[in-house]
Amino acid sequence: MFMTKLSKYPHLQAIHVYYDGSVNGSRSGCGLFICDYISACHYTDTEVSRRLPVHMSSTRVELYAVLEAFRIVAPLHKISGCFVSSSIHLPMDCDLVNKCLDLMHALEGAGATIHFTWIPSHMFQHLSISSSVV
Prior knowledge:
- The protein is α/β, with parallel strands linked by helices.
- The protein is built from four helices and five strands.
- The chain has one domain (12-133): Nucleotidyltransferase, domain 5, CATH 3.30.420.10.
- Helix 2 (58-73) runs parallel beside helix 3.
- This is RNase H type-1 domain-containing protein.
- InterPro entries: RNaseH-like_sf (IPR012337), RNaseH_sf (IPR036397).
């Protein structure tokens, strides 16, 4: 089902961002795998990993991943697909939610199009797995 959804997003001049956050004991971080499509079959890929402050919740590390994705995609001014690997419930008063929304509104105000797609699991989708590994 995910691949059917993914096929609806244009690859030409688009950026696909797969991201994930992780907490393991006192360690936390986030990883991104970014595909910048040059043509329908060719893309450059970038892996980004960020170590985050200790003792963060799983929700906050996911939000840091979203924020990092927006910061990387913003200057590129292309159609962007952000593929979310978890079904986190976000508190609307959270500072990171507000930062993400501000960046999203700025991008859309500049003419960018942003699509979010939830990936129900990391299974069977190698690019999503790449973000988890990073």
